[in-house]
Specification:
This protein is of the alpha/beta class. It folds into four domains: about 100 residues, Methylthiotransferase, N-terminal domain (Rossmann fold); about 110 residues, Transcription Regulator spoIIAA; about 120 residues, Transcription Regulator spoIIAA (2-Layer Sandwich); about 55 residues, OB fold (Dihydrolipoamide Acetyltransferase, E2P). Helices cover about 35% and strands about 25% of the residues. The strands form six sheets. The chain has a five-stranded mixed β-barrel. It starts with a helix and ends with a strand. Iron/sulfur cluster (SF4) binds next to α6.
Amino acid sequence: MNVCESETLSSMLSTYGMVQINNTLDADIIILNTCSVRAQAEQKAFSYLGRVEEIKKQKPNIKIVVIGCMAERLGTKVKKRFKTVDLVLGAKDIDNFALKILNLCNFEKISSDILINRSSEIVRYITIMKGCNNFCAYCVVPFVRGKEISLDNKGIFDKCKVMVKNGTKEIMLLGQNVNSYKYNSTNFVSLVKNICKIDGLERLRFMTNHPKDLSDDLIDLIVSEKKICHHIHLPMQSGSNKVLKEMNRKYTYEHYLELVNNLKNKIHDISITTDVIVGFPGETEKDFNDTFKAVENIRFDGLYVFRYSPRPSTKASTMFDDVPLEEKKRRHSIILNASNKISTEIVSSMVGKTFEVLAEGFNFNVLEARTNSGRKVFIKDTDKDYIGKIFKVQINESKVNSLFGNIV
Ligand code: SF4
């Protein structure tokens, strides 16, 4: 979501003549988009702001803007700690980001409702909802992003149409909990059905899916609608019912497993990826083993594992953080190793087979493409003309999370 919001902001600012560059010393303005989801993400932002102080000494007129979830959570405290920061814009104020940044730079007044109209990009993200009402015990998102708000379905549809007209082939719909999208009489399934009707759109993805809201209707739509990719990110978080309850996730492991089996039975090539937290308060060795067994049993195509860290305002921050850091690290590495082993086995089994891919980019004479299931495939000795096209490749080599192939 942060990538999407950074792109949108960059797009809006570029219509006023601003250009995104890579060298901070050449910049007139540095915009730091922050995340609050883990303590480590905030520490990284702080250390970056520390480095930026040095840049400001060399270039006193440079403007420093901090946006996003950490900015929302800490507000003016960011400015107190880093005197070099000119502007702090919290995540809830996202609609006014561009306007306030342009004002800071003395640009003329603009409308905050610019339709994203960038030059051709093969894969684009679009936010369909903001905020979250779920209040998982460990999560700061409802506090920094606010209540769940679904955006106008017509506006979303129109933006998708513009993107496709400009050359986009694949769209990813984003929301903290996309399955619970509801705008008047339009629910998530009807929104997706409608977007799939756009001529020229080849692929559609969406994330993140909350297991409690993943309906049979949506699974059936993935089966019947050819444009929907066979990849679903379905955060499990824990394989222990006791921990899931403490986390306020509102489903049991058995329910989660039923969803996974339903998906696998109906969509034979579905790729399922997940998130797991280890070391949540009260997680015993037995609870952790339940998670480990779930990972081994389900064999996820991809898995992000996080060590629990308390986030301010959350329910879990009032619980006793009783799993020592060393133990969290041990559990983290056990899950990571198991997941990497499974992932390696899955990608190895793809070698020799042929898959349809969409070419997304070209870097150092290597074509970067993606399978329908979301795996990256690198194709050497070819040319740029394939970008934006869907074609078949035979896989001839695999690494942990990447594949290499030749065009068939
Ligand atoms: S569903 Fe839970 S984890 Fe996801 S954003 Fe909402 S509160 Fe956070």
